[in-house]
Specification:
- The complex is a heterodimer of chains A (189) and B (201).
- Chain A is built from nine helices and six strands, in the order H-E-H-E-H-E-H-H-E-H-H-H-E-H-E.
- With 189 residues, chain A is of the alpha/beta class.
- Chain A has a single domain, classed as Rossmann fold (3-Layer(aba) Sandwich).
- Chain A has a six-stranded parallel beta sheet, sandwiched between helices.
- In chain A, helix 1 runs parallel beside helix 9 and helix 3 runs parallel beside helix 5.
- Chain B is of the alpha/beta class and 201 residues long.
- Chain B contains eight helices and eight strands.
- In chain B, the strands form two sheets. Chain B has a six-stranded parallel beta sheet with strand order 2-1-3-4-8-7, with helices on both faces.
- In chain B, helix 1 packs parallel to helix 7 and helix 3 runs parallel beside helix 5.
- The longest helix of chain B is centred in the C-terminal third of the chain and has 13 residues.
- Classes of the chains: A alpha/beta (189), B alpha/beta (201).
- At the A-B interface, strand 2, helix 3 and helix 5 of A face helix 3, helix 5 and helix 8 of B.
Chain lengths: 189, 201
């Protein structure tokens, strides 16, 4: 029987980063931190092989990453799901339109609370009532439908046991020459 | 406005002096640049995302610190992502030369006025963002005289140039009648640039 996600240990940033290094060998990490990714940024700030590039708004991260890739480097992007929504045209017009094999980490604000409250889309209809319900963060309801609408493949990452998802995401990004999102459903420890 | 640079006055000396720099164009200078250059290190930020040319160029500059990257960005595009000026300064991309071409209009859609067209101080914005080397030009002679030094010095450098509004229409890709670097998809353009720069490093 599968253990409920909330009962499992939170994913560790060190395990995630080791797997990212093995699968992607990133030269640069571009993004903006939040509480869920803080532990990852802490590791990236002092990483000997990955240069951290901080941006002022998440949309910049995808354009910078596309430029890094065109210049022959291997970027990683880390943003929150709220910033992902803001990044729509930047993601579409740079990394997607340029065919960049990018894996980008998206912290999934509101996921745990929304999942505990009830079903998520597509089971839950995106009604006006659902989107104003104060018990659920609406960005959690909109994250996966938005990625699906934008044609972005994604995988979920909620514990250290999901580590194989990173290599799978990297392989898909390379094979299909497109960005693939890694949705971090829990804050990193 | 009569003394402001024409696109020819802006681009002809740049084409002579660019050397082996990557040149990223956007909006109203995409086609005019192609009249001066068919270098494989030219990249048109067209059929892309408006406002994200300078940050794309920043990524290129960070990827290839040994090579100069020249970005020809418009004032309307600059306004869309003002934070990128801060990102450029913070990333300390010493090989990036960012041109902000100020004509006060959205040229490709019919020269509608951009917000704050006659009031925004782009050089002041760049300085306030932390870019130490900022130069402004509003007539061709001073620009042409200064250009060799601008392209040789350590950056990031912001070059704010007053240019005359033109009459370029919307850009398209994949049309055989278009400028050579617009005849292929954005993905193919990016792949070719990556190849011209030597591929994965």
């Amino acid at each position: 029987m599968t253990q409920p996600e909330a009962a499992r240990e939170p994913p560790r940033a060190s395990i995630l980063l080791d797997a990212i290094e093995a699968a992607l060998a990133p030269s640069h990490a571009v993004g903006l931190p939040d509480n869920a990714s803080a532990a990852l940024f802490s590791l990236l700030e002092r990483h000997p092989r990955v240069r951290l590039i901080s941006v002022t708004r998440e949309g910049e991260a995808f354009a910078v990453a596309a430029g890094l890739w065109a210049g022959g480097r291997a970027p990683l992007v880390v943003v929150q799901n709220t910033g992902l929504l803001e990044s729509g045209d930047a993601l579409r017009g740079t990394a997607v339109r340029m065919g960049v094999p990018l894996v980008f980490v998206v912290t999934y604000r509101g996921h745990a609370r929304a999942a505990a409250h009830g079903p998520l889309p597509p089971t839950l209809p995106l009604t006006g009532e659902a989107l104003v319900d104060p018990r659920v963060d609406s960005v959690a309801l909109l994250t996966e439908p938005t990625l699906a609408a934008w044609g972005i493949p994604y995988v979920r990452y909620g514990s250290d046991a999901d580590v194989d998802q990173i290599e799978a995401a990297a392989r898909r990004a390379r094979d299909e020459a497109r960005p693939v999102a890694l949705l971090l459903t829990r804050a990193l420890a | 406005m009569s003394g402001w640079l024409t696109k020819h006055e802006l681009l002809a000396p740049l084409a002579r002096l660019r050397g082996d720099a990557v040149v990223v164009t956007s909006m109203g200078v995409v086609r005019p640049w192609a009249r001066f250059s068919t270098n494989p290190l030219d990249f048109a930020s067209a059929d892309s995302a408006m406002g994200h040319t300078a940050d794309f160029a920043l990524g290129l500059a960070l990827a290839r610190p040994e090579r100069r990257v020249i970005c020809l960005n418009g004032d309307g595009s600059t306004l869309m992502t003002l934070g990128t000026l801060v990102t450029i300064a913070a990333a300390d991309a010493t090989n990036l030369v960012l041109f902000v071409l100020v004509n006060g209009t959205y040229e490709l859609t019919g020269n509608q006025a951009i917000p704050g067209a006659s009031r925004v101080d782009y050089a002041g914005l760049a300085r306030a963002a932390g870019i130490a080397r900022v130069h402004s030009f509003d007539e061709p002679l001073a620009y042409e005289r200064a250009l060799p030094e601008l392209l040789a010095g350590e950056g990031p450098i912001a070059v704010v140039v007053r240019v005359q509004p033109g009459d370029e229409g919307p850009l398209s890709r994949g049309d055989p009648g278009e400028s050579p670097y617009l005849r292929v998809s954005l993905a193919e353009s990016a792949r070719r640039l990556r190849e011209a720069l030597g591929g994965a490093r």
